[in-house]
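Example record

One chain of 342 residues, shown exactly as stored in the release files.
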Amino acid sequence: MKVNWQLNKNSILMLHALVWVMIFLLPFIFISENDSSKDAGDLAFRNLKTVTNLFWMGLFYLNALVLIPKLFNKHRYIYFVFSLLLSFCIIMLFHGALFKPFVQGHDFNFFRSSAHNIIPFLFTVTVSTTYKIIYDKIKADTVAAEIQKENLKTELSFLRSQISPHFLFNVLNNIVAMVRLKSDELEPTVIKLSSLLQYMLYETDEEKVLLRHEEESLQNYIDLQRIRFSSKLTLNTSFDVKEEWHTIEPMLLIPFVENAFKHGNGLLSNPEIDIDLHSSNNQLDFFIKNKYVSSDTAKDKTSGIGLTNVKRRLQLLYPQRHTLSIDDNNGWYKVHLKLFLK
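Predicted structure tokens for this chain:
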């Protein structure tokens, strides 16, 4: 399960403020009734440590916002360590300046105070470095996710522009022939083409579409191709989508069908395409196979672009929730896709 780490600036500022308030108030939260009888010197040291927390807070942001980006990330490790040591010495000097006003009757010893404060120093540097690493990782992941999202939009737009020219010209020619012959198939053909174009141009702008809409567009595409090839092609289809309410990324299946029609005819003497689409138990099962000739596949330089994009979309959108097997031997090209739907 992925967690959305994206927070706005106000939320981050409030979170930082809350953590620091808790750190400053922590010594006072657990004051017991017996604390009033404590030695005045102990209370003075506690107050001094509380004020010193201001310096640790400054070191936290100095390390996270300046030292790590400017030195550590640029592999200037010696300067990074030197800067931390210098910061520690400066903090100890300020600590010493505050020592006499807070702790009266005791002399300040630089080395003894350094020994007492080395653990808070190392803890602050460790937490600050860890925070910066996690913050940069979240930021990088967010940017990468946005880039992937934009890439997917670009690839989807490319798929739409790639599919349309491959068959639109032939479908329009068929429509012209139907008009001349006054065929009864003219009106259903125009309706199917209109529905398919509407789906590709408008509905696919959404991140998800209903499975039944993807099925309808797939069926329209197949019917238009069936009209185009008529009796020249043996076309067997089986659709049984029982769970139509599921959603799916748009135009995820059409490229496989488009590829089958592109290479499943032409030089073949008895072309055949078989398409099966089933959905049940939150799983989509899609199988398609077609006869092909190797020389026919090799002559089209753009034949694999659509399938390459679909493979990448599957990897990004359905990680560990899909299986895709592609087999081409004995004159048959077979694709079997399983999607595990939410």
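Notes: The chain has two domains: 9-26+38-143, 149-340.
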